[in-house]
Please model this.
Amino acid sequence: MAQMSGEHFVITVLAAPGGPTALVCLAGEIDLAAGPALSGVVDRLSASAPTEVVVDLADVTFACSTLPNFLVRVHRALPDSSALVVCRPTVNTRRLLQVTNMTRIATLRSDLPTSGHWAPRTAVRPITLPAPGRIG
Model:
């Protein structure tokens, strides 16, 4: 498990070494400040080349173009046979994904699929964002 955080976001990556599936949990504000951490996630996924990447958006409170850009970068970094699944977007985040046509590269789901490596809710809870003014 790897976790990166900033003043207003937390990113958790769960992936077994050599495992076929990776889970990326995003929380808080996914904006330009999260960009460097998201680049690190893309590098990590590119190196491990999972056959499926599940991105959980349940705890995203704000997202701008940084989110669709991240998803495109993940899609491009993975082998052609890999699947990108985006789960539990809020109403506003879902709208952003639809307007930016992310459904062309990712499957949208309202639930979090189970895996041998995680179970719904236990992998993403509890997430505590750092207090304002503090970088975690």
